[in-house]
């Protein structure tokens, strides 16, 4: 059973944070004209775009922005040490799990977030995105963008086998078993114990069958429910048809791009790679040598699935928020966040348009402005970039939008976000999932996960 420890600041760390006066861009003094911005989009090409945005912002405001690229796990580690020393960044683009964790630790400036929301206008944002920026019905961060987890499938293989497009987990299992032939796996998905990609995949499967981590507005786990046990059973069945060995985010992508799997559960960030528009991860299937976009032309996208216990489940995804940290250059930070969600918005989203659907729809005068701008963005980090619609047509655009705007998540909007965040950031249930992958009865695995969740809930008391 995975052990959870409460991720909270010590009294010393809180004291250092509250007393700190030289945080991020310099502690918010009147003469301070600099801020620090942390972003998870840290590849060289994406960093270059964000530095261009920072330069444009400086030209407009005179405020210098230091752009620092840090992946989510590195952000968490650096935030912990920064809180202890009183040295935090001013603005952080981060995932919703981090929003709840940092708010519980007293790190986010809720008043600053509320000010930005009032300035930009709450009604200019996607309604679904708003709930992921709130804790106890109050804004603690500002919605930025989002992606939804999809089921990508090989249309050509399905058509050849005469298999209809699946709409439920059971149908996905059946299709995976039928399509598993020779060197081709029926599906490839996360199976590496304790890995973040398993945490992601587990919740994706669970939500499809209406499995919730806990009772609404409580920290009482419900992982031994019928819906959760059957979701785990479906996950186990899918792993039997998956590529052998412990699979993570890198290996699953490689398998699908090589044509070694008929389906894959992945985020929309896969779209440019499927299309042969990412030199770092090119398609390597036999047909791809002659036709670079072969996989793209033969890939279909499924957004939401049902399960054995619900006719229509909900969809896993990851909303990103812009957080303003406490005791930093608040005025400069608020200006930068507003700029990122206005003049600099389209350019910011262009760093990875396929995985960054705007959570701000437009302005008061032009309600769909940013969605329309996103529709025109190109994807890929090759010399030749292409609009999403060129590769996947309007149905592809609609799938991304539907996936990003119909997200559900354990805890968030259900009144137990801190519990969900605690388990997710430490990948506790992904550790427990090892028993599932080795063939243990799903009901027994559910009991193990239930115990882990109960331990986490007790640590939060």
Strand content: 5-15%
> At the first level of CATH, what is the class of the largest domain?
Alpha Beta
Q: Considering the protein shown, what is the CATH homologous superfamily of the largest domain? A: Periplasmic binding protein-like II
Q: Please compute the radius of gyration using only Cα atoms.
A: 22 Å
Q: How far apart are the termini?
A: 20 Å
Count of discrete alpha- or pi-helical segments spanning 4 or more residues = 21
**Structural class estimated from helices and strands:** alpha+beta
Low-pLDDT regions: 1-30
Give average pLDDT, whole number: 91
Topology:
Layout: H1 11-19, E1 34-39, H2 44-61, E2 64-69, H3 72-85, E3 91-95, H4 96-104, H5 110-120, H6 127-131, E4 134-135, E5 138-139, E6 142-154, H7 155-161, H8 169-179, H9 196-208, H10 226-240, H11 249-257, E7 263-267, H12 271-274, H13 294-297, E8 299-302, E9 317-324, H14 330-340, H15 345-349, E10 357-358, H16 369-375, E11 378-379, E12 386-387, H17 388-405, H18 417-426, H19 428-432, H20 434-437, H21 442-459
Parallel strand pairs: 1-2, 1-3
Antiparallel strand pairs: 3-9, 4-5, 6-7, 6-8, 6-9, 6-10, 11-12
Helix pairs in contact: 1-3, 4-18, 5-14, 8-10, 9-10, 10-21
